[in-house]
Amino acid sequence: MVVCSSPASSVFFFFPSTSRPSYCPKLKPPRPKISPFSWAILRKDSSSPALAHPEAPRGSDVAEPLASDSFCSRISCSCTRRQFIQAAAATALFPLCPSNASNSQSDYMGVLNKVHPPRPDWYEEFYASVMETSMKSYEAEIAGYKSQLFSNLKGKAQKILEIGIGTGPNLKYYVGDGSNFRVFGVDPNRKMAKYAQAAAVAVGLPLANFQFIQAVGEAIPLSDASVDAVVGTLVLCSVKDVDMTLKEVKRVLRPGGLYLFVEHVAAKDGTVLRYIQSVFDPLQQIVSDGCHLTRETGMQISEAGFSGVELSMAFLSNASFISPHVYGIAYK
Asked: Helix 193-202 crosses helix 121-133 at what angle (to 10 degrees)?
């Protein structure tokens, strides 16, 4: 058994195997075009609240800081005072979103800390270094799928957000001529920054065009409709709230924008693999920074309110314990 890590700040148990389980179809090379596994024409979602970043660097894409109580309020609170303020906002004196804004950096950090409590520096550094060194076989096997998927961004996106960017293994697939791209890399582990920056430089993306932001998917600190595309690979397994993260993805995407994803999901009910995943899921969440083995992520993406979803499935021999994978494109 080998302990590996992923671009989603999650460590997985990979079990190398010379034979494929009978319930896993033979892995096929990537098709020339993604064929829909399922297609969903869903209702368009109304805008989610603009969220914040503790700093306000280049440009106007970074939103105002988020109030410290808004993470809770977006889930269940129906504060009367908040509703009154929202009504007052209709006068257009100032742009208020449903979850209030404040001007304090500490407010946004409070939200980040609720979702992803601070870890010791040594732990985050260890995690980042493991991610940098132990994903080689996985990345080699999935490279064909990623090349096929990210080719859909050519000529369609110049401003890209990657959630759970980790050490930046995906940058080489979609940056191309780095001078024409601006990339925001979001990850809750600040120790990933130096690895992601090195990956950006390695593929020709100037550091002036790359911004690492310590943040979580549930509270993306970018303005509404501020990016052309969102990329996320092996990240929805470990976020606290998948649905909220998908709402944030839709919020920051411009109309017609693309969300490109690669995620591991639960195996089919009744299979030996699904039983193994169910047994190890609690342990996996503890040792792998919140990673879940039994999430139905493909279904959640399809039901998230995108205008359309193209979704395909793959099985990887180097990731038999975290199979199958779903990958595809969701359209805003």
From this structure: 30
